[in-house]
Amino acid sequence: MNKLLEVFRNSSLDDYAKLINESIVKREILVLIGKCSVDYTGRGESRLTDGDRVLIIKSDGSVQIHRPEGYKPVNWQPQTSVIEARVVDNKLVLTAIRDKPREILNVVFNEIYLLIRGRLTDNGEFVMYLNESDIRDLIYVNPWLIEDGLHIIGKEKDLGVGAVDLIGVDNKGKAVLIEVKRITASREAALQLYKYVEKYAKLTGAQPRGILVAPSFTTQALDTLKRLNLEYRELDLKKLWLLKKRNMGGKCGLDQLL
Amino acid sequence: MNKLLEVFRNSSLDDYAKLINESIVKREILVLIGKCSVDYTGRGESRLTDGDRVLIIKSDGSVQIHRPEGYKPVNWQPQTSVIEARVVDNKLVLTAIRDKPREILNVVFNEIYLLIRGRLTDNGEFVMYLNESDIRDLIYVNPWLIEDGLHIIGKEKDLGVGAVDLIGVDNKGKAVLIEVKRITASREAALQLYKYVEKYAKLTGAQPRGILVAPSFTTQALDTLKRLNLEYRELDLKKLWLLKKRNMGGKCGLDQLL
DNA sequence: TATTATATCTCGGGT
DNA sequence: ACCCGAGGTATAATA
Q1: Ramachandran angles phi, psi of A17, nearest 5°
Q2: How far apart are alpha carbons B184 and A102 in whole angstroms?
Q3: What is the DSSP string of A127-143?
Q4: Hey, is the C-beta of A114 within 8 angstroms of any chain B C-beta?
Q5: Among A30, A57, A77, B59, which residue has the fewest nearby CB atoms (within 10 Å)?
């Protein structure tokens, strides 16, 4: 199994360059650890002076350069059309070019500590639960979560200024527009809902109710909602979660750890 | 120099667990390549079945799990309060826990191909050019970029509904609010500007001009601007860039490569 | 292709 | 600690 991965250290620069270029052609994964500086130009422009970093090239040509700290890479390239390694002035230079937008990443290695390359096989299935569309779907099926007597009649309805998450009719026959957020709703969310309410009123001539649904709200959001005559419902994610799990047979998580 | 990094393969599970826990205590960087499955729960919840991945733990306790493709990690933890490796049922289990928000990442390794650990030293300086604040500052100093006779009198002025990028006075003495975008301005950007214009009018009793400044505009943005009686200026980033470079002595880039 | 909205967004700066 | 807005955001969905 370990033939999967090759490890190199103390190789010559020319050998490193060759190893890298081979890996890219073979669409292997490549991890390069060493001291380097990085220049980037494209949508913006950045310079990073010498330091120890971990560089990863994946089989799709994406590149990321990680410093010893921080979740995010300091420099990167989501996908590239060209990646090339070569030796210039006794240094290993790696260039990754991307089109649309045209961007160039240039890495100069002053030292290479380690190179790992190999083919990884990953056919794993990834499932994400309880994203916004999950919540929307749950409310769609269980409108009582918002209020009794509510009938949902539409999902992701485009009003010409973007799509409102849910449209329904309350027990008095009045239209209800619902905007769903899975995290704390900010003022922006309230404004987004207002935009739909305004547009709907203009399109139909009838004033709808607007309800912002979220697990919590910033004070500014609440102010704005009040000012714009909009409603809100606090949503208990845990409750939704249980509802979802019940539908799935109760086996979708390790939340007992929480 | 290579004593910086240690490489292990074919070690026992217990040894791997020990190596990992040691690294975490010593705040080293750790790269683990192997076949694993991943469970995450916290703000959301996800499951990832078996496959080959690259796991990185950095000195700040951030964790990321990379599949062979894609720029982004499939699972991650920006920072963690606790990371622990242990052997359970003849498998290496790595748990990373984060508080606020409470989130748990659980990785079960069925095979470990390679473990690399070591201390990296990175004192490099990172500089980013031409982000939004750069553009704002350039306009601040060179208001003629927007129009002749404009005087900028404020930057990042908080109006109580967020801060407007720039405030100025035109050659007729009328207030001008400027919102800057470094990428194509969308309808949202127009609405953002409108929000400031409305608020300013309410605060002062005088109707200001509103100008959206961006390298380009979506058609919806232009529609919205027209409807809301707002203005816009197309901004040539390259021109700004040259302006900036001239100020810096002409040496801040490799854009000649573009 | 262009545009929009989401994201386990992350991250920094402000109050 | 909350809140807001930028991001080289990336990414998926949609027209």
Answers
A1: -60, -40
A2: 15
A3: EEES-HHHHHHHHHH-G
A4: yes
A5: B59
Task: Please state the length of chain A.
Answer: 258
- B20: DSSP letter: H
First-to-last C-alpha distance (Å) of chain B: 36
The mean pLDDT of A223-236, rounded to a whole number, is 91
Rounded-to-integer distance, Cα B94 and Cα B99, Å:
17
Lowest mean pLDDT among A4-18, A77-91, A155-169, B177-191: A155-169
Q: How many CB atoms lie within 10 A of CB B220?
A: 16
Q: Per-residue pLDDT averaged across B20-48, rounded?
A: 96
Instruction: Tell me the CATH number of domain A132-256, given options 3.40.1350.10, 3.30.70.1030, 1.10.443.10, 3.40.50.720.
Output: 3.40.1350.10
pLDDT of residue A247: 67
Indicate the DSSP class of residue B256. G
Q: What is the pLDDT of residues B52-82, one digit of tens each?
A: 999 999 999 999 999 999 999 999 999 998 9
**Range among B96-100, B190-194, B253-257 rated most confident:** B96-100
Is the pLDDT reported for residue B258 higher than 80? Answer: no
Q: Which residue has the tokens 């509904």?
A: B161
Q: Is B205 left (phi over 0), alpha (psi -120 to 50) or beta?
A: left
Say how many Å lie between the first and final Cα of chain A, rounded. Answer: 36
Report how many Cβ contacts below 8 Å link chain A to chain B.
224
The highest-level CATH class for domain A5-118 is mainly beta
Q: Which of B62, B113, B191 sits opposite A4 (nearest CB)?
A: B113
Closest residue by Cα to residue A65 from A86, A90, A91, A35: A35
Task: Please give the pLDDT value at position B253.
Answer: 46
Separation between Cα atoms, residue A144 and residue A131, nearest integer Å: 20
Mean pLDDT across B151-176: 89
One-letter amino acid identity for A83? Answer: I
DSSP state of A173: S
Collapsing DSSP to helix, strand or coil, A96 comes out as strand
Closest-CA distance of chain B to residue A210, Å:
19
Give the closest nucleotide to B132 (alpha carbon vs C1'): D6
Q: Taking CA atoms, what residue in B is nearest to A62? A: B71
Would you state the pLDDT for residue A2?
Answer: 58
Is A126 touching B (CB cutoff 8 A)?
yes
- Give the residue-averaged pLDDT of A106-131: 96
For B88-115, the DSSP string reads ETTEEEEEEEETTTTEEEEEEEEEEEEE
The residues, any chain, with a CB within 8 Å of residue A146's CB and separated by 6 or more, are: A139, A168, A176, A178, A211, A213, A233
Q: Specify whether the CB–CB gap between B167 and B146 falls below 8 A.
A: no
